[in-house]
Design goal:
The protein has about 350 residues and is α/β, with parallel strands linked by helices. The chain folds into 2 domains: about 50 residues, no CATH class; about 300 residues, Alpha/Beta hydrolase fold, catalytic domain (Rossmann fold). It has 14 helices and 10 strands. Helix 2 packs across helix 4. The chain is globular and about 50 Å long.
Amino acid sequence: MHATAIMKNPILVGIAILLLTGSLSMLPSDVDAQDGAASGTLRERLKQRWLKRHQDKPASESNADAIAKIDKSGDYNFTIVHDGLSRQYRVHVPQRYSAATPTSLVLAFHGGGGDMDHMATDKYYGLISKADAAGFIVVFPNGYSKLSSGKFATWNAGNCCAGARDQNIDDVGFIRKIIANLTQQLNIERKQIYATGMSNGGMLTYRLACEMADTFKAIASVAGTDNTTSCTPKVPIAILHIHAKNDDHVLYNGGAGKTFRDMSKITDFTSVPATIAKWVRLNSCNAAPQRVLETSGAYCDKYSQCAGNVAVQLCVTETGGHSWPGGTKPRGDESPSQALSADDVMWDFFSSSQHPNTSKNH
């Protein structure tokens, strides 16, 4: 078909734009940067056209819902507009919540290519059951996705990952807005706000530790190392890292495993030892750790005597690959280690950070 015939048909024009946009999205990031340097290029115009299609008009009703009071337990879904984009998150309020009592808040971030619904699936991660048992509110934000469904989402954690990184999505601002909303809706204990995450979600918790240490009391990253591009925390912050020694995606000693290397635009991940050394230094901790857990298939080492009475703790499982210890996985590759429960270790660590002078063995 001739080009003139295509241009006269608006449906064919739309298809051509979509196909071209999808093809351009697969180009390396350095090509993207070079093309974007020239204002008004075809690539930049197509990018802006794509963003416009995926932006919501100011959703006054949704934003009003996101600050309406919540006075009872249950599950709540919210959509808000941040930085011109429609963003989603889920909130689980535990069964014993009372609006008269300040309550701890945990934000849980899904892995790259996942979404909030997957992270909230209890049989995989167990976070809703843990929230009900321990009495904390848990929030499942959704990362940036090109799809209106929010599936296959990623987080901008610095050097990782994919669309969120490449589009420089303001995930930190998004998290600030979620917390601002929740503190209007619920009785949140502001000195007990925590973050946890899996893989790319765990990497985002490190960015939050760097940029929002005055908001978060502690973070717990599972299978996701610190890949921030800069880090100047305002105050010391407690750090928990959980990682399988045989992780085949985010390698324990640094780099991306074969599965990730085959994907486009994946960073060369920082190692677990380098991540821990960085935060021991940033928190001015004693460089000699104490073994606080040793069991068949797992151990935890804790660095204490840090500034601000915080701690840095590393828990390692021998097996489990790229997974959430104590959980399950929907696919048939290596099952998560059951040598420890990430949920239990996480909450013990968060709880001990509320009373930093007490040392709790798990």
